[in-house]
Write a structure and sequence with these properties.
With about 290 residues, this protein is an alpha+beta fold. The chain has two domains: about 220 residues, 3-Layer(bba) Sandwich (Glucose Oxidase, domain 1); about 55 residues, no CATH class. About 25% of the residues lie in helices and about 20% in strands. Zinc ion binds next to strand 5.
């Protein structure tokens, strides 16, 4: 169940990072359990000397078993657990920074993920329901206008707009990578013209699926088919969130906050985020 308090509820809009989710490049996660952790902690202790000579003697004593700390030395015979991961910055729920789109944006060097204003990442949220769209159907300006009319809402500057396609439910199936609708470039510009800085989708990508874009490009040799939405970001400064989840769990299409602070990776094109909706007050009873 979602975290419930008297004053607010937090709804998790992120996918967990796990190799069971469909990705082109799977994350590698090595789990160091509490027992293995003891041996590694013991080893780290003996090699953390400043002098090489001392480290050498410590290692010698360690391997002779004289200066060895292992799991038997810890209470309950277990020590600390941790993980080592090898992962693409675009795996799982993440924000793309302007740097991802190109080295320059609006004539200046593009912002990397550590440089984007955090004010962009905490703002009023609005969910636009596009679940009626088929995978190959573009989400156009008329669709966004209709969705806003349906919920009687006008998008305002700095809103965080969340495009709900519903395809996150298939994140463990192969089709998650290939079958989803995306907004078209006109629709993206329509949102940016309203002063929006962060737009999210619960689909694998913010542009159409790779194979559809590549197919159209190879047929026509027209560059306009290659990642058009991402490339809008060379002329217009904005971020998008990919691989959101659970947008249907937000009890209201607007009237909630979104927090989507990316992990601070120096000079990176993207950062993973635990994106959440924060629902307050009367809406808690819905
Ligand atoms: Zn990305």
């Amino acid at each position: 169940m979602d975290n419930v308090s008297n004053k607010y509820r937090i709804i998790d809009l992120s996918l967990p990072i796990e190799s069971a989710n469909q990705e082109f490049i799977l994350p590698k996660i090595k789990f160091i359990n509490h027992k293995k952790g003891a041996n590694l902690l013991g080893l780290a202790g003996v090699i953390s000397e400043r002098s090489t000579l001392k480290t050498f003697f410590n290692l010698l004593l360690y391997f002779l078993g004289i200066k060895k700390v292992n799991c038997k030395d810890f209470p309950d015979k277990i020590a600390l657990a941790w993980e080592e991961i090898q992962i693409n910055t675009h795996t799982g729920t993440h924000l793309d920074a302007p740097w991802h789109f190109g080295p320059y944006c609006e004539g200046r060097p593009s912002k990397t993920i550590d440089q984007i204003p955090l004010e962009w990442c905490y703002a009023d949220g609005v969910v636009l329901d596009m679940r009626y769209k088929q995978p190959k159907q573009p989400i156009a300006v008329e669709d966004l206008e209709m969705a806003c009319r349906k919920i009687n809402y006008s998008i305002k500057p700095r809103d965080i707009v969340l495009i709900m396609t519903g395809v996150d439910k298939f994140c463990k199936e192969r089709k998650y990578l290939f079958k989803y609708p995306a907004i078209n470039t006109e629709a993206l510009l329509w949102l940016l013209d309203k002063g929006v800085k962060v737009i999210g989708t619960d689909a694998w990508g913010f542009d159409r699926p790779f194979k559809d874009m590549l197919k159209d490009y190879l047929k026509s040799k027209d560059k306009k088919y290659l990642w058009p939405n991402h490339l809008v970001g060379r002329g217009r400064e904005y971020c998008h969130i990919e691989k959101l989840a659970n947008l249907d769990k937000i009890p209201t299409p607007y009237g909630f906050k979104v927090a989507c602070f990316p992990i601070n990776i120096k000079n990176a094109s993207a950062g993973w985020a635990r994106v959440v909706a924060i629902v307050e007050g009367e809406l808690l009873t819905k």
